[in-house]
Amino acid sequence: MKPNPQNLNQFTDETGARVFDEIAKHQRKMRALTGLACTFGILAVVASILIIAGYLVLYLPKQKQLMQDFGARIERIDSTATLPPGAQSPSPRDRYDFPHIQVIMMNAVSFGGMLVAVAVGLLAAGTLTVLALIVVSRRATLDQINASLRQITEQMKLLQNARP
After folding, report:
1. Pseudo-torsion of CA 9, 14, 20, 24, nearest 10°?
2. pTM score, whole prediction
């Protein structure tokens, strides 16, 4: 049996409408996911910047002051007071060794926390860059597909017009 061109056009129109509906749904999902990913990436970068700024502005000056005050306190200690006869006088560093270690470790841990914030910020920036690359690449691919489909459509129209 020979296909009826009218039925073929109707079939193509219905199929095309369904295909365009599915493509539109897919595009809406992709836009939503892209927006969500960008939002989370930007929030991660902003949070990292705020943590680093908070460390540098609020925490680091107090930490330096604590280190200086602790050093001055150790120097002011009178190591000869209340020593039993014949005992060696302890050095100020020996008497306050544990608090000194705590201050140094607090300094190291806070610096490590700041480094983690920097790493999270860099990872978030890298994620946003990769996301942008994917979106741009996907759009370029879709533009190429659309251009190819337009060419095929034009060729099909020319073939249909050329038939007697």
Report:
1. 160
2. 0.55
- The tokens for 34 are 């892209």
Token digits of residue 116: 């983690």
Contact 117, 51 (CB under 8 A): yes
The DSSP-derived string for the chain is: -PPPHHHHHHHHHHHHHHHHHHHHHHHHHHHHHHHHHHHHHHHHHHHHHHHHHHIIIIIHHHHHHHHHHHHHHHHH--TTTTPPTTPPPPPHHHHTHHHHHHHHHHHHHHHHHHHHHHHHHHHHHHHHHHHHHHHHHHHHHHHHHHHHHHHHHHHHHHHHHH--
Task: Please tell me the predicted confidence (pLDDT) of residue 8.
Answer: 47
Q: How far is CA 118 from CA 34, 87, 98, 104, 114, in A?
A: 24, 51, 30, 21, 6
Q: For residue 9, is pLDDT > 80?
A: no
